[in-house]
Amino acid sequence: MTDQAMTLPETSPAAGLLPQSMGRMTLTEWAQMPITWVGLLSTDVAAASADLQAQIGAALPAPGQSLPCTGGHILWAGMGQALVMGTALSSVAGASVVDQSDAWCALRLSGPDAPAIMARLCPLDLGFDQFEEGAVARSLIGHMNGIIWRDGADSLTVMVYRSFAQTLVHELTHAMRAYAARLALA
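and the corresponding structure tokens:
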């Protein structure tokens, strides 16, 4: 054995699998970015919200919501939890902070049929008339737990843990293929 440290090349969770387009839909991977989990240590959200406001220009979002912030967005991620996407944080008053940049796979499903594709995999109504821009939900996606974020006028970001990246790509592309075939026959 040598004394040289072995370094592994950095790869994205869905490396080599995307982008894919079918019908009126496109599936792409978010570029690698800092993702920081913020978990409140108590039910008093004031200190954490004030510190986040000072650091990134946005407080903790309300349940089911996201807010733009310096360098990205902050997403509600559960009771007393948020994900700060695009900006690294080292501390937040009254909260635990964990860098989860390498823990998530974030895919963007773009196009007018995104809600119909997700209806094949998710029990929630993600119709663009119901699931408003900026909305966030935790739900099952196929058999995986994940986060769904309406990040644009006709797009959804679907996030699962990195270890499920290939499964998520498979499930979404299978649903896209089936939906595109259905439209072609209509």
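(Above: one complete record from the training split.) The mean pLDDT is 95.
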